[in-house]
Design brief:
The protein is an alpha+beta fold. The protein has helices at 5-43, 48-63, 101-109, 166-187, 192-195, 198-203, and strands at 67-74, 77-83, 95-97, 113-115, 138-146, 149-158.
Length: 211
Amino acid sequence: MNPPLGHAKCDNSGVTRTRELETRLEHTEKQLHLLQQISRFMVRNLALGDALQKAVSLVVEFMASDSCLLYLLDGDELVLVASNAPKPDSIGRVRLKLTEGLTGWVARERRMLTISREAYADPRFKLFTDLPEDTFEAFLSAPVIVRGRVAGVINVQHRDPHFHSGGEMELLTTVGEQLGCLVALATADLKVLDTAHVLDLVMAPAGAARG
C-alpha cells in the first residue's frame, strides 16, 4: 500500500532539511579549520612573510576564489606583501598610496568593500598592468587592523561575477583581524614576556604597554 501523498512530501522535506544542515555543518567546520590554522601561525616560530603567504593560500582554498592579495602599510603607502600566486618582482614592489585604487579606499575609510561584478569599472579602481587580478570581476576587501589602527588590506577576488555572502564578509573581517595580530606579534619584543610582571600588564591602561 502506497503511503499518503502528504506523508511523502513530509519525508522529502525532512531529507532536504537534513542535507541543508549537513552542508552548513561542513562549511562551519571548514571555516573553523581556516581560523585555527591562522591562529597557529601566531604561536609558532615562523617568519612573518611565510605566515602571511600561507594565510592567503588558505583563504583562497576556503573561499574558492581566484586570488587573495595582502597589502601592509609602509609609511604612507600600501605594499603588496603576500599573494596566493605571486608574480615575479610583484611582492614588495607593487605599491599604492592611500588615495589610490579600491585597496587605498578600504584602508583610508577603514571599511569593508564588496563588488560582485565589473570591479574594474568602479571609478575608484586603479590599474596595475602587471597584475592579472585587474581583470577579475568580483572584489571583496577588508582592512587589516592592529590595536584599532589600519595596518593593511586583504583582498579576495573572483574572475567571474560572484555575490559575496554575509558569512564570507564576516570571515574576511575576522581574517583581517588575525593577520593584524600576526603583524603585531612580529614587531613585539618577546623578551618582555620573560621579564614582565603579568599582573602589571593586566592592570595597565590600554596603550600603556605600547609606549
